[in-house]
């Protein structure tokens, strides 16, 4: 996999990688999980950390200092991301700081309105000030109609044992409200454009060697002679070893060479599609347009595409490195053999 950068390999499969997770992002996600454990409470560790470092202050506004244990500093450092992953659900508001907890659509009143005119207005005030009989009463604190509307979106559930945080990252589908590492990791990681082309790589049942060959072809990273030359590697003969006529490039050996044409013609005949494709993108488009023929057909089409690509590449390598030649009929036979094995395996 030396032809693809480590960074790209770490993308999710639908975003052009192989789904590896970089250690740095796993570490960040683990730190976020720790921050969640701290605010959701219920453990001796969280209670101890709270009593030692937050005391009667507020977790969301306290300032890190040198006396803080390193774990607590890590928790504080993740507050901003944490806000985007949680929502407050009220029992009666008595456990929620009116000004400083981010209970209004992931923001605090302090974030939205700035500091109150009198600092003492913040002290000891909880959301119970504006909840009566299980309903929001924002007018009791002279909130504007606009802010009142945002407040109403916070759920009150008098049946809860207490006000609580639920895990609900922005953009993630609503779950159980419990922490999930997958959605936590997605919140931390960098994202890249999605491409459905990669479903032609990561098809279930496809041999790994074929997946990787199609993957590198899609990314344009197979080490053909034209690319080796461009890297400064001495290439005595730049010609394609399959036809010995044209310079070797990915476009040539997979889509223009006479051998490639024989193979695509046969695969197109079996699949019942048009064989005028000029690149991997064209083939993928044609096959995708026909996916209405059913899941089984579409899977077979992807298996045939991958087996064809891999056998052309294998034949090229055997001719270069082993000086062995298999005639087109033999290659087609090998493709059929592998397709049947993968279809029935
Ligand atoms: Zn050729």
Automatic annotation (TrEMBL):
<feature type="domain" description="Reverse transcriptase zinc-binding">
    <location>
        <begin position="179"/>
        <end position="264"/>
    </location>
</feature>
<dbReference type="Pfam" id="PF13966">
    <property type="entry name" value="zf-RVT"/>
</dbReference>
<dbReference type="InterPro" id="IPR026960">
    <property type="entry name" value="RVT-Znf"/>
</dbReference>
<protein>
    <recommendedName>
        <fullName>Reverse transcriptase zinc-binding domain-containing protein</fullName>
    </recommendedName>
</protein>
